[in-house]
Specification:
heterodimer, A: 404 residues, Butyryl-CoA Dehydrogenase, subunit A, domain 3, four-stranded mixed beta sheet, 12 helices, 43% helix, B: alpha+beta, Butyryl-Coa Dehydrogenase, subunit A, domain 1, 11 helices
Chain lengths: 404, 378
């Protein structure tokens, strides 16, 4: 099928609109609370039963992964068609059927670097939300210096044997499988790293959740003791994992940044301008009374607008075949700053209303803002610290030399 | 919204960039300053006219090239790169827009071909205090039979020291601060009662204070509807703000490139100073600001051509962001060059001095933050 002309896109839009109308349950068109997010996998409980139906239907169409090839369960859509799907879902305020590191990070890397058998084996279950993946990258001694990782992977003839520890593994305690960076050669740094996959139920895998300052525990410490992994689960070449790791980090940075660490819209939280109007008050012209705060909120909103325009510009220029690496390189840094500024301003505008922790007496959205503010401090640390991002811009984009 | 230039726009951009680089480099501005020309250069004006730059916004039927704002933005960015002192912002953008958007057919026929050919330059005489404040106009225009009599004073009129025609904003009704009651007038430089006081300014571009004492203008010189001048002024100012933002982006880019070059050549402690992480991070932050501002300027320029309904918001966004960016980059340019950056022989100072003028013209970052908040209903 070729939907290249605008007329064909219109036909596709009609088709999508009708299908969504028929298949998207009404409760899936309402704002989603955090505990209703569907991450899929063996442990998924589907708090709202409709979300199971919605995931099943979207998964069967391949529309959870609209641009992935059909042979691996994807939707096989062109970029333009995928955009139409996105617009039509936004039009009826349809919830995303699935949140998944498999969709955002691991899948795209596997499509590029995996062998045919691996793609057929792992991708369809990602599309259907049957397997939940986690990422085994950081280690206690390898944070910003990721390539310094030490988790040992030995070739034992008919299998690999893995020993070591990962940290900051997102949702490791809820994941089914892990894509993991391991050391297969201790004599080299970057060239001694391999990219391997294994089941989190394998013997010798243990996870311990880490409690954050925000009170939530989205990350774990993960321990591997003599974990046996079949040899066909290593992706790409032995000692060739760094290339895959780097590409995957790009997917991570762009998925983190695409929504600017997620929007407050529909979450029960309001923006800093709204909170300022309510909690600081306005004059007869509707201006927020604290002129200094008002100016700083406007400055932030402009930064956010500039950020969104930059993401759009980068996308358009990429489509036109222009080099956009230098623009993309600033996006993670800017997204972190934007999100942290937003939460700081929300808390400031809320006043003491933004200083509740739990229980009665505080607005529900305000309490989410408080937790979100604390959580946002991680934005400039996770997925490459802001300082590392600035180093990358200085060295790769501006070509400034390493200090001798 | 389009962020990718068409072939024609690319060509114009290349022409403008090489023209300003070869003919109007910073050295040229330095020369105008040192020879006491106060930013005025008739030869350059003729060359700009030959290249068609005055007619970029003017439709072909009035002898322009009708290429639109995105195209004009490329020329403005190019002149910003070398700090070229030209009448383009006031004439090719603000003057042409005012007549295009508010002029009668007769006025368009009379003025637009003259603007396109470079025969006539214009200057908007609006502000009366040292801060941009479009509704604060106190200059009075009183009905006098066949026209109006103007009395008042205008401050720091860009290009005022050499413009042929002024677009004077005066009050025909109400009090300073009122949106209603403003009227725009075309006032020739030689009008009786008009005094032009040329100013030597920090950026070496020059400007002028105007005094209007019983200046008579005919009805045929009223631009747009009497009393409703603000409805014309706002979109004209927004086009000016957007074009100026493009110029400021050009200045930011050039100052940054100069600094970037210096980081890669200057050695201290036996090392290139660009290898010091403290300076690398400053460079990376400047680069980030420039990238973000590039997007705002591009979005604002194309919004005008596409006649979007958020031009005002995007104009304030672009002007505020461009002001903050050029402020940061020009300051860091001096600092990162160290002692040499403090000397008059070096170009750093020229960028910083011009930056402050660009920041103040047509509304500072603070003015546009306030406006952006108002447009966003808080």
């Amino acid at each position: 099928m070729a939907y290249d002309t605008p007329t064909d896109l219109d036909a596709f839009r009609t088709e999508v609109r009708e299908w969504l109308e028929e298949n998207c349950p009404p409760s899936m068109r309402t704002p989603m609370t955090e505990d209703e997010v569907v991450w899929g996998g063996r442990r998924e409980k589907f708090k709202n039963p409709d979300s199971k139906v919605w995931l099943q239907r979207m998964g069967e169409k391949g529309w959870t992964a609209p641009t992935w090839p059909k042979e691996y369960g994807g939707g096989g859509l062109t970029r333009e068609q995928a955009k139409v799907l996105e617009q039509e879902m936004a039009r009826i305020k349809a919830r995303p059927p699935l949140f998944s590191f498999g969709l955002w990070m691991f899948g795209p890397a596997l499509i590029e670097f995996g062998n045919e058998e691996q793609k057929k084996r792992f991708l369809p279950d990602i599309v259907m939300g049957k397997t939940r993946w986690c990422q085994g990258y950081s280690e206690p001694g390898a944070g910003s210096d990721l390539a310094g990782l030490q988790t040992k992977c030995e070739d034992k003839g008919d299998h690999y044997l893995i020993n070591g520890q990962k940290v900051w593994t997102s949702y490791a305690n809820e994941a089914d499988w892990i894509f993991c960076l391991v050391r297969t050669d201790t004599s080299k740094k970057h060239e001694g790293i391999s990219f391997i996959l294994f089941d989190m139920e394998s013997e010798g895998v243990e996870t311990r959740p880490i409690k954050l300052i925000s009170g939530s525990s989205p990350f774990c410490e993960t321990f591997f003791t003599d974990v046996k992994v079949p040899k066909d689960q290593l992706v790409g070449e032995v000692n060739g994992g760094w290339k895959i790791a780097k590409r995957l980090l790009q997917h991570e940075r762009s998925s983190i940044s695409a929504g600017g660490f997620g929007s407050t819209r529909g979450s029960g939280m309001l923006g800093p301008d709204e909170y300022a109007k309510i909690h600081v008050g306005t004059d007869k012209d509707g201006k927020v009374l604290d002129g200094d705060l008002r100016g700083r909120i406007a400055d932030h909103m402009m930064y956010a607008k500039a950020f969104n325009l930059t993401v759009k510009r980068s996308g358009e220029q990429a489509k036109a075949g222009q080099e956009v690496g230098h623009t993309a390189s600033i996006i993670k840094y800017a997204a972190a700053k934007m999100n942290q500024d937003k939460f700081e301003l929300m808390i400031e505008a809320l006043g003491t209303e933004g200083l509740g922790w739990e229980g009665e007496g505080f607005d529900k959205g305000a309490k989410m803002a408080t937790r979100g503010w604390l959580r946002s401090k991680g934005n400039s640390i996770e997925g490459g610290t802001s300082e590392i991002n600035l180093n990358v811009v200085a060295k790769r984009v501006l070509g400034l030399r390493e200090h001798q | 919204m389009t962020f990718v230039l068409t072939e024609d726009q690319e060509m114009l951009r290349d022409t403008a960039v090489s023209f300003t680089r070869d003919e109007l480099p910073v050295k040229h501005l330095r020369g105008l300053r040192d020879s006491g020309k106060n930013g005025v250069d008739t030869d350059a004006r003729n060359q700009l006219a030959e290249l068609g730059f005055f007619g970029v916004l003017i439709p072909e039927e009035y002898d322009g090239v009708g290429m639109g704002m995105v195209a004009l933005g490329q020329v403005m960015e190019a002149q910003g790169r070398t700090l070229a002192s030209t009448p383009l912002l006031q004439t090719a953008c603000i003057g042409a827009s005012a007549i295009l958007l508010g002029g009668t057919e007769a006025q368009k026929k009379e003025w637009l071909p003259k603007i396109a050919s470079g025969e006539v330059t214009t200057a908007l005489a609006l502000d009366e205090t040292s801060h941009h404040n479009p509704t604060g106009v106190a200059t009075e225009a009183e009905r006098d039979g066949q026209g109006y009599t103007l009395n008042g004073a205008k401050k720091y009129v860009q290009d005022g020291h050499h413009a042929d025609v002024f677009i004077v904003v005066a009050r025909t009704f109400g009090e300073p601060g009122d949106t209603h009651g403003l009227t725009l007038f075309l006032v020739p430089r030689d009008a009786k009662g008009l005094t032009v006081q040329a100013l030597k300014t920090v950026d070496s571009h020059g400007a002028a204070h105007l005094t209007l004492e019983g200046v008579h203008v005919d009805d045929s010189h009223v631009l747009g509807a009497p009393d409703k001048g603000n409805d014309l002024l706002e979109p004209v100012l927004d086009r000016g703000r957007i074009a100026l933002s493009a110029e400021m982006l050009g200045s930011s880019l050039a100052a940054f490139e100069m600094t970037h070059e210096y980081l890669q050549t200057r050695k201290q402690f036996g090392q290139l100073i660009g290898s010091f992480q403290a300076l690398q991070h400053r460079a990376a932050k400047m680069f980030t600001e420039i990238e973000l501002t590039t997007s705002c300027v591009a979005a604002a320029l194309s919004a005008v051509d596409e006649q979007k309904n958020d031009i005002a918001e995007l104009a304030s966004l672009a002007k505020a962001r461009a002001s903050e960016t050029v402020h940061l980059v020009s300051n860091d340019t001096v600092q990162l060059h160290g002692g040499i950056g403090m000397t008059d022989d070096h170009d750093s100072g020229f960028y910083m001095k011009r930056a402050r003028v660009q920041e103040a013209l047509l509304g500072s970052a603070s003015f546009h933050r306030d406006r952006y908040a108002r447009l966003n209903d808080f």
